[in-house]
Design goal:
- Chains A, B: Pfam families: PadR (PF03551), Vir_act_alpha_C (PF10400).
- Chains A, B: InterPro entries: Tscrpt_reg_PadR_C, Tscrpt_reg_PadR_N, WH-like_DNA-bd_sf, WH_DNA-bd_sf.
- The structure is a homodimer.
- Chain A is mainly alpha-helical.
- Chain A contains 7 helices and 3 strands; from the N terminus they run αβααββαααα.
- At the A-B interface, α1, α4, α5, α6 and α7 of A face α1, α4, α5, α6 and α7 of B.
- Chain B binds a DNA duplex through α2 and α3.
Chain lengths: 184, 184
DNA sequence: GAACGATATGCAACACGTTGCATTGCAACC
DNA sequence: GGTTGCAATGCAACGTGTTGCATATCGTTC
């Protein structure tokens, strides 16, 4: 249900086609709410039916036609309503790395260390990306207000979480390696 | 697909019935992989069909009969295989709080602050819980080895992530409040 | 001119998670 | 004796996410 609200936010920032939205969900808002183009097209259809967005067909030079969507008044109202609504119990945690770690003694510990190292590197890379985006888009965070501030805070959340995963991976790899050396 | 591996881990730690597994998924392993009893019963059926687990019907005094499941050799082999397997691209991030924050200027900022405060409190509570569990189950973390170490590291991951969310919420609430005071 | 990649939209099938409901046995409480 | 509550198992329907495929235009490259 919530993807539709992510789309509303993105379309309120700027109207666009399904394809453009899919590009945005490959980065930017997509870092915090993943979605494929199939999901997006399917949702756009439902949202048109619900009257949350309107659609203009736009013919283009040198490119296939596209359908540009923008948020209707009903859609804007619905978005505002959802933003104010207390969220459902939330955070259904599902972390397969934790499951693997917990089951490490039923598998091969060396493989688990390798897997944690892979994840460590992925989180480090993602953190690097966020820091690059921060420097590029928000060089002076202290002065931000309004929509820019909100966007910055979302990015900050991403950094905090990646930092946490990174330390966790580092600590765990160290502990597993020590354990392999002494016990096992 | 991955729930079945979480169940395998849990059943290798100790054989049990569907109901008992559902209780375990209300805490312990469930903090890192959420699952309802319907999912669990459904998965157990599939896993029996696949030959990953075996089932004994156990009659009980003063209670309904139950079906106790244990991991078969095939199941153990499959679990070990999965643990060693590099995980799929992973972490499909979906954080509705980030979406709400990003859309704050299209809703009511005061409501967003209230919502972030609610989440802040939930994360603080969860962190408290993890710290209690740590003190209860792992009073001397430095000496842990093997399976206990693995369980501790999973808990540590939970704490790191909750700490991160907590600081993020605190920072964001502060920034949003300041922004409301000066600009807007 | 064939092949490839980007733009652009979409269907169908399947896997997985959620919600709501249903049933049985027994104990305890009022 | 009826209600409540825990133990225990399960079905059906629906919503959402994933995977694989299909199609069309246009520009560039081999």
């Amino acid at each position: 249900m919530s993807l539709e609200y992510a789309i509303l936010v993105s379309l309120r920032e700027r109207a666009g086609s399904g394809y453009e939205l899919a590009r945005r969900f490959d980065k930017s808002i997509g870092y915090f709410w993943a979605a494929s183009h199939q999901q997006i097209y399917r949702s756009l259809k439902r949202m048109v039916d619900a009257g949350w967005i309107d659609c203009d067909e736009v013919a283009q030079d040198k490119r296939p036609d596209k359908k540009v969507y923008r948020v209707s008044e009903d859609g804007a109202a619905e978005l505002a309503r959802w933003i104010g609504e207390p969220a459902t119990p939330s955070s259904t945690t599902r972390n397969d790395l934790s499951v693997k770690l917990r089951g490490a003694s039923f598998g091969n510990t060396a493989e688990v260390i390798a897997e944690m190292t892979r994840h460590r590197d992925m989180h480090a890379e993602r953190l690097e990306l966020y820091r690059t985006l921060e420097q590029r888009d928000f060089p002076v965070p202290a002065r931000l207000t309004g929509r820019e501030l909100h966007q910055y805070l979302v990015l900050l959340g991403g950094m905090r979480v990646e930092e946490a995963f990174l330390s966790w991976c580092d600590e765990s790899i160290k502990a597993l390696e020590n354990d392999g050396g002494e016990a096992s």
